[in-house]
Write a sequence for this structure.
């Protein structure tokens, strides 16, 4: 029989419980917004020193974790990213949809997938109000308003707001028919 465990330290804001006071103290930074650890290179701030240390690997290029299965020698700056990558080799997909049974290797992928069933579109354009189920779609949409065209043709220099549009354009130079 399962016993109910009462955690001695709980958050006064959201009620989440913790077994150690240190974990509650770390958690409280979520509510206070305090981020005392800042990157000297880009200014991004973090609530934990460990997160800053991991972030610094972006600037140093340090990638101490490597995949032994890939011939290309994939390397990662964080062990968590290597663990996620290894699921490609194991085929492990521990997160499954209760509606259609589709499985995913990462929780965030299941969360995004569930929006198909719920119709949720949490990402809204501040300019026109149009909503999207994925952040990347909002980012692409915003280029309509900003006029940003980050994808350029190496042959003629013409710019595009979407990569697939550039890919189609490149066929005009190669003569390839889709």
């Amino acid at each position: 029989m399962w016993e109910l465990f009462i955690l001695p330290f709980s958050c006064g804001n959201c009620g989440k419980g913790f077994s150690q006071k240190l974990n509650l103290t770390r958690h409280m930074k979520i509510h206070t917004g305090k981020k005392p650890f800042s990157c000297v290179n880009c200014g991004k701030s973090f609530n934990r020193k460990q997160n800053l240390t991991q972030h610094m690997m972006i600037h140093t290029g340090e990638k101490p974790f490597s995949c032994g299965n890939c011939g290309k020698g994939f390397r990662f700056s964080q062990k968590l990213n290597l663990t996620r990558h290894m699921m490609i080799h194991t085929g492990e997909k521990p997160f499954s949809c209760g509606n259609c049974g589709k499985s995913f290797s990462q929780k965030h992928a299941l969360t995004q997938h569930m929006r198909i069933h719920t119709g949720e579109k949490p990402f809204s354009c501040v300019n026109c109000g149009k909503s999207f189920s994925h952040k990347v779609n909002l980012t692409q949409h915003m280029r309509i308003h900003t006029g940003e065209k980050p994808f350029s043709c190496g042959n003629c220099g013409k710019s595009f707001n979407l990569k697939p549009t550039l890919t189609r354009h490149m066929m005009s130079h190669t003569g390839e028919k889709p």
About this structure: The longest helix spans residues 21-32. The mean pLDDT is 86.
